[in-house]
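As promised in the previous annual report, we have extended the structural survey to additional targets. Below is the entry for Two-component system, chemotaxis family, response regulator CheY.
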Amino acid sequence: MSKTIMTVDDSASIRQMVSLTLKEAGYAVIEARDGKDAMARLSGAVDMILTDLNMPGMGGIELIRAVRATPQYKFTPIVMLTTESQASAKEEGKAAGATGWIIKPFKPDQLLAVARKLLR
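The corresponding structure token record, generated without further manual editing, is:
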């Protein structure tokens, strides 16, 4: 059975790149435009979430807090996929409940290595 990964980013081109990379590796992908859209689409089996940090509406940190407050997704891996590389932003992400961090632009094999590691 394939694992389902949600990708949350306000950039359509980033969502497409992430989706294509993951689908080629056999993952099912749900795309969301921002945190609100992600929360609306979060139903059933989502095995991992990849989220941008800075998005209009509901950003990545708020999304992580909202997901972590939902019992069903309390332990779902959440990886920040962002251009932010400051330690303070990482700390805030970790404090909110982020599992990991990938800096954009990402390499497809790097993304897949993280997905495989977290979805074993």
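The mean pLDDT is 94. Strands lie at 4-8, 28-32, 48-51, 78-82, 100-103. These points will be discussed at the next consortium meeting with the crystallography subgroup.
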